[in-house]
Amino acid sequence: MWFSKPVDEVLDAFHVDQAHGLSSADARERMTKYGENKLKGKPEKSLAALFFSQLKDMLIYVLLGAAVITLVIGDYSDAIIILIVVLLNAIIGVVQEFKAEKAIEALQKLSVPRALVRRDGEVREIDSREIVPGDLVILDAGRLIPADLRLTESANLQVEESALTGESVPSEKKARDIYDDPKTPLGDQSNMAFMSTLATYGRGEGVAVATGMNTEIGKIAQVLDADDEDLTPLQKRLAALGKMLGYIAIAICAVIFVVALIQRRDLFEMFLTAISLAVAAIPEGLPAIVAIVLALGVTRMSRIHAIVKRLPAVETLGSVTIICSDKTGTLTRNRMTVVHTYVSGKFADVPEKGQAECDTQDMKELIRTFVLCSDATYESGEGTGDPTEVALVVLGEKYRIQKKKLATINERVAEKPFDSDRKLMSTLNKENGGFRVHTKGAIDSIMKIADSVRIEGKVVPLTEEIKADILRAAETMSDQALRVLGAAYKETEQILQPDEMEKGLTVLGLVGMMDPPRTEVKNAIQKAKNAGITCVMITGDHQRTAAAIAGELGIASSPEQAISGSEMDAVADEAFNEKVNHYRVFARVSPEHKVKIVRAFQSNGNIVSMTGDGVNDAPSLKRADIGVAMGITGTDVSKGASDMILTDDNFTTIVAAIEEGRNIYANIRKTVVFLLSCNLGEIVAIFASVLFFWPVPLMPTQILWINLITDTLPALALGVDPGDPEIMRRPPRSADEGFFAGGVAFRAILGGTLIGVLTLCAFYFGLNEHGYGLWSKNIPENTLTYAETMAFVVLAVSQLFYSLAMRHSLQSIFRIGLFSNRYLAGAIALGMLLQYAVISIPVLSGAFHVQMLTMSDWLVVIGLSLVPLAVSECVKAVMRMAFEKR
Ligand code: ADP
Ligand code: MG
Prior knowledge:
Elements: H1 7-13, H2 24-34, H3 47-55, H4 58-72, H5 76-110, E1 114-119, E2 122-127, E3 136-140, E4 148-160, H6 162-165, E5 171-172, E6 192-193, E7 198-210, H7 216-219, H8 233-263, H9 267-281, H10 286-303, E8 306-308, H11 312-318, E9 322-326, E10 337-343, E11 346-349, H12 361-372, E12 377-379, E13 382-384, H13 387-398, H14 403-409, E14 412-419, E15 424-431, E16 434-441, H15 443-449, E17 450-455, E18 458-461, H16 464-479, E19 483-492, H17 498-501, E20 505-514, H18 521-530, E21 534-538, H19 543-553, E22 562-564, H20 565-570, H21 573-579, E23 585-587, H22 591-603, E24 608-612, H23 618-623, E25 626-630, H24 636-641, E26 644-646, H25 651-691, H26 700-710, H27 713-719, H28 744-769, H29 781-805, H30 813-816, H31 822-840, H32 842-847, H33 855-885
Parallel strand pairs: 9-21, 9-24, 17-20, 21-23, 22-23, 24-25, 25-26
Antiparallel strand pairs: 1-2, 1-3, 3-7, 4-5, 4-6, 4-7, 8-26, 10-11, 10-20, 12-13, 14-15, 15-16, 16-19, 17-18, 19-20
Bound molecules: adenosine-5'-diphosphate and magnesium ion.
Adenosine-5'-diphosphate binds at residues 326-328, 386, 388-389, 418, 420, 423-425, 440-442, 483, 485, 539-542.
């Protein structure tokens, strides 16, 4: 039991040196022996299983039943066609589901957490799957524990173990504890850290004692494999719609059957007609197509650096009205450089490059404190760690105060880590036989815990006057959009508890660091504005710094639009809700304020997206409609709580993701409306002919065929329609707007009815050519087949053409470009080719009961097929004119 052994023994057992870690060769060898450090998910569905799951569908049973009946009565060609359709449907379904699943899987791989390990004597960040037993793993606040670890070091380390123990209060970890009782429960093993739990505070290091399925969580992983299907609200609504259409189809079938009985039609014929009508009416391909359109969209988004963790987020993205963004790193580059220092009442510039000398001892002390009170490292020109701290270590390098050297002489013995509530960090280091507390942080926070100040080598009381001077200096730097950090210290004889450190300090001075805004952000903010989205800055930084940058970026236009966390505290929630729309900059806020901000915006009917990176950001990320975590600087905790991860930490990506989200929703809508119009066309044609005692213009197998060529490729091609360049010039879609709002239902009904009526027209035209009418009795078989062929072609081709009308609800198709969606153009061409093949290849035409048409009739059917598209274009033109008049 590792928790009952001292650290040295554990390290020996794994043949690893604490300072050096494993060698790369060692790690490779262990990888082959122990395998990847990952929990096995649910077993993958095999292709065969996927295939058979496609057949578990009411509709398929009906079709198979029909196939059996046709076989029994000896209509072999119909039976074969039905079976082929069933088979093809299943195959298409499998391919779609497979693709969708793979896309989602690939995305999940992208969000595998990274881990810090010590190997070959240096700290490296690796994929947590590459950890092997014996690896020395470094932990800091916000990180997911990547394997089971026996801790070798801990500094105020706290771990939240609810994933394992159900206990949500973080437990304190101490590397030095040892438990003799072999039955010590997991929750009490304070010298261990377990895979899948979260470090919420402090730092630590541990040696991996178990990886993958050998870990404690691995032993119970099977329990966690419950497969949770994550349907989006739209998918749920569409499923309900599908069900409703199913019932309608059954009702229509029943009506047809009864009418046919009354009319004394051929019952078997009518039975098949009813079945094929059901096939036509039920949009059985719809869920699969929506799923794959979503999956493809999400894959596209990952290419523009936005990883969507939950599919429903795609839809919500399209309705976002407020983007709340962190400043540092998201709006700015997070490449901090110290440009000014302020000591003893004097500013000094820091040279951009090269070495410099400290003018005074005070300045040297200031820089020493900043360097010692940092966790960042700087080696051979590379900084690692928090950019703010890297900047400070780099500052030290410039003044020949090297962190590496200093840290060995003035060894750190205790610390109180930075958190964004206190906005302070302190360390206790050895100093001349005694100790010294080094504190750095926001200058207002420093002022609260300091009672003296060092001026020209002397420690003097911190009077109100000096305070005012320092604050003024800080403001001067803030107004230049600089991030200001203060430093303070105190001497002590003995080791202090963390709680004792931050009081009675002596202020040393300030530094101002530059963090230039990302150049592309300004355009993105303008783009969001055009799209009716408001951008808001939220930062822990000083109000003036924040306001200065917000002004540069076009987020705020006046200083009154900025409010600080303490001002927010002074207003009651309701009053704040009313005023919140007025503000664009929230400065000096802590994570709890973020929740208040999200709530306030939501109470005004906004759909809010909120960014976050720290451990404490989890509540606001969860509370926001779209929680956005930072991929590079974000903690695993924030990633876990988010809906979307930005792999480039860039604000611009949020706006791009919203645009994608809007386009994906629009495309799903196009697909659904298209499928419904097609189905409606088929229903209208058949239902009308039955009701009016006409011969039925379509054979059941023909309907199955048409569904096969229109419901698959063209529908899918519409789902990947190129984005509408105008989409970011429109206001966000209201979140409670129905799917059929804004004339969508009208378009489906108009198109469907037209397609149905034109099919009947073609049928009539065919009969009429041979001197018969719709009500004629004893129409010769040949004539009927000819007229049916015309109806068959019109039904198929008009649907193919009508798909073009779906591409935009207002713009003319010529404006958008007939070929700008190559997939759709290809799908239409292929559909027409197949349609022609069915008619012209004798084996097929025999099976489908169709004939070759004459040249002039081809012209007629093509002309009729163009009508729905043409009418829809006219309607759009009229609508455009109406819009322009307004
Ligand atoms: P943001 O990321 O929005 O700028 P933070 O919460 O990171 O806000 O920082 C808030 C304030 O805390 C900063 O303005 C700075 O004064 C202080 N601060 C930031 N990082 C550190 C750190 N590593 N150590 C001490 N103080 C810090
Ligand atoms: Mg920060």
